[in-house]
Amino acid sequence: MAKGKKGEVLVSKFYEIKGDKVVRTRKFCPRCGEGVFLAEHKDRRTCGRCGYTEFKK
What we know:
The structure is a single chain. By secondary structure, the chain is an all-beta fold. The protein has a domain at 27-57. It contains no helices and seven strands. The protein has a three-stranded antiparallel beta sheet with strand order 5-6-7, with no helix packed on it. Strands 1-2 form a two-stranded antiparallel sheet. The protein has a two-stranded antiparallel sheet with strand order 3-4. The model has no long low-confidence stretch (mean pLDDT 89). This is Small ribosomal subunit protein eS31. It comes from Geoglobus ahangari.
C-alpha cells in the first residue's frame, strides 16, 4: 500500500448516501463558497484556504 502525502484527505468521506440522496457531512466555507469544506476540530471549524473560523458551543 502506497503512502499518501501528509494531510491528504479523501473528499469522498465528506459525503454520505441516505436512501437515494447524497448528503454532505461537512459545511462549506461561507467566504470561499461551495467546494471548499471546513475542517472539523474539537472546538472549532476552520477553512484552510482563507482562514475563516467558527467556534463550536
